């Protein structure tokens, strides 16, 4: 029996900041997903690529330095913590820095190998001046700016298929001709005030597999029309699933898997590297939620 090809996966145990069970943000999914990846043969315990915390200088490429310093010191003002949705204590601060560095690492691995996946990231509501919507640092925006600044890439595409619009990424990257941001989301979902991406597609409540995938098939060619990216960041949030607590769409497991297969295969056929980040997914059933996220890694592996 031939060995499974190696899918580069970035993971750190401290991605899980150990929230109490039942918290609105299902922090336990990061630990459970890592275990599923081991159990299903995607990686062994020593097979994950492990990031260290992102440096303040990296974070300040996308965020105000004053906010960066507040997070690192675990002294985020209470009004901002309320917008984020949880206290930024030492564990959350470390988690945010690790997840951001993990997305940078996944991007560099993807540039080398074609595909790589971070088991965290996709914190797309974090804006330049502060976090919001369960997002502390905007890992994709930081990674995009870092790669461009270091001339590791000339142009970067962000395709965000989380159920919520990527408002923070759009805000941070606005006006940069070397970054194209694309968001396909539930139009009536959070945030109430959208920030214009390069391309936005707002879907009506209840959109199911067939209509969703037809829309995605029309969208994918538009993402590179007049734009030749060296790298794609793919936010593969599973909150478009019909069982998600915070989603308003109606995708099945099969629909999520078909979505991910389309994204990976479409860009790989064009020889464009893809770095995926976990994105949103909200359920008190941590095992079921983690298995939805596992579908992204299955699709990535199939596209190697």
UniProtKB/TrEMBL annotation:
UniProt KW Transferase keyword: no
Record's keyword annotation contains Hydrolase: yes
Histone deacetylase domain boundaries: 23-290
InterPro entries to which the protein is assigned, alphabetical: HDAC_classIV, HDACs, His_deacetylse_dom, His_deacetylse_dom_sf, Ureohydrolase_dom_sf
Pfam families: Hist_deacetyl (PF00850)
Biological process according to GO: epigenetic regulation of gene expression
UniProt keywords, alphabetically: Hydrolase
GO MF annotations in UniProt: histone deacetylase activity; hydrolase activity
Family (UniProt): Belongs to the histone deacetylase family.
Protein name, entry field: Acetoin utilization deacetylase AcuC-like enzyme
């Amino acid at each position: 029996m031939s060995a499974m090809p190696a899918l580069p996966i970035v993971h750190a145990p401290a991605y899980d900041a150990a929230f109490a069970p039942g918290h609105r943000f299902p922090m336990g999914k990061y630990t459970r997903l890592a275990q599923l990846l081991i159990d299903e043969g995607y990686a062994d315990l020593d097979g994950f690529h492990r990031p260290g915390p992102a440096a303040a200088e990296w974070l300040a490429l996308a965020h105000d330095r004053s906010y960066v310093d507040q997070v690192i010191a675990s002294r985020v003002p209470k009004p901002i913590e309320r917008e984020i949705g949880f206290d930024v204590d030492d564990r959350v601060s470390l988690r945010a820095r690790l997840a951001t560095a993990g997305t940078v690492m996944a991007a560099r691995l993807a540039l080398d190998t074609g595909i790589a996946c971070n088991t965290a990231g996709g914190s797309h509501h974090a804006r330049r001046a502060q976090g919001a919507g369960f997002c502390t640092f905007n890992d994709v925006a930081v990674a995009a700016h870092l790669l461009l600044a270091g001339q590791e890439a000339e142009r970067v595409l962000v395709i965000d298929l989380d159920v919520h619009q990527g408002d923070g990424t759009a805000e941070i990257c606005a006006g940069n001709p070397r970054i194209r941001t694309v968001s396909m989301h539930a139009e009536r979902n959070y945030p109430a005030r959208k920030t214009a991406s390069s391309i936005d597609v707002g879907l009506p409540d209840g959109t199911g597999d067939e209509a969703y995938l037809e829309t995605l098939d029309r969208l994918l060619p538009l993402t590179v029309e007049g734009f030749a990216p060296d790298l794609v960041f793919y936010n593969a949030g599973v909150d478009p699933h019909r069982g998600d607590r915070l989603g308003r769409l109606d995708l099945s497991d099969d629909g999520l898997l078909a979505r991910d297969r389309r994204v990976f295969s479409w860009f790989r056929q064009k020889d464009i590297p893809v770095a995926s980040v976990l994105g949103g997914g909200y359920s008190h059933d941590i095992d079921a939620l983690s298995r939805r996220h596992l579908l992204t890694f299955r699709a990535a592996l199939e596209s190697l």
